[in-house]
Write a structure and sequence with these properties.
- This protein is of the alpha/beta class.
- It folds into two domains: 102 residues; 137 residues, no CATH class.
- 46% of the residues lie in helices and 12% in strands.
- Strands 1, 2, 3, 4, 5, 6 and 7 form a seven-stranded mixed beta sheet that branches.
- Helix 3 crosses helix 4 and helix 4 crosses helix 10.
- It is elongated, with a radius of gyration of 20 Å.
- The protein starts with 11 loop residues before the first helix and ends with a helix.
Length: 254
Amino acid sequence: MLVYPSALDLSTSHLRFLTAQLAAHRAGRGTRWRRLPAGRQALLVLAHLRCGHTYAQLAAGFKVGHSTVYRYVAEAVELLAALAPELAAAVKAAQGKAFVILDGTLLPIDRIAADRPFYSGKHRKHGMNVQVLTDPHGRLLWASPALPRAVHDIKAARTHGIINALSDADLACWADKGYQGAGGSVRVPFRGRHNNLSAGQQAVNVAHARIRALGEQAMATLKTWRLLRKLRCSTTRITGVVQAVLTLHLNCSK
């Protein structure tokens, strides 16, 4: 395998934050020696999350074994995921804002045609459903655990308790037509073809779409972590990866 120098489009704050978490974890466990120091482990994990490099590529680049890469990534993802905010904390932090935006996104996964629960007819591919809350400026606030993509957005929102949490906090929420019938404080556009709606309804839908478009910035933020563009790991590990990315974004992108 050929090896060449590369670069990550991340700030040093990401490296410092993850290095500090790993160093504290090692100190707490009383670890005496590792193949790589905490800083190099952090760099390895960031390369995996940001660029989607495989374990084999990372093993060659950092001159460690394949199993060592797996352990290092799993350890860091678990640490970061544990720091991700819960829904209740995210809603409480958003109560001072005018509203939030709710949307769902598809995280493509590597699955065969037989895995029907993970198949999205809308996107014509296999994937996992992740619900995302953003503030009025499109900044990421919270990301849900991942569910099979066959679960529709409104069912996913109810499964995670998002609608009830927003209603209890009396927090206005803008969402797309996939959340029709959600009720509570969730506001959705009028149904029907644009030319079949009244002038007033058309104006409301246009304004609604402009607001929701800001939420797409959060989706784009998630997808800048290229591992999330094509996940090849077990579906049971995807939630941890999403939460790890959320933690890095919230703590290092201020």
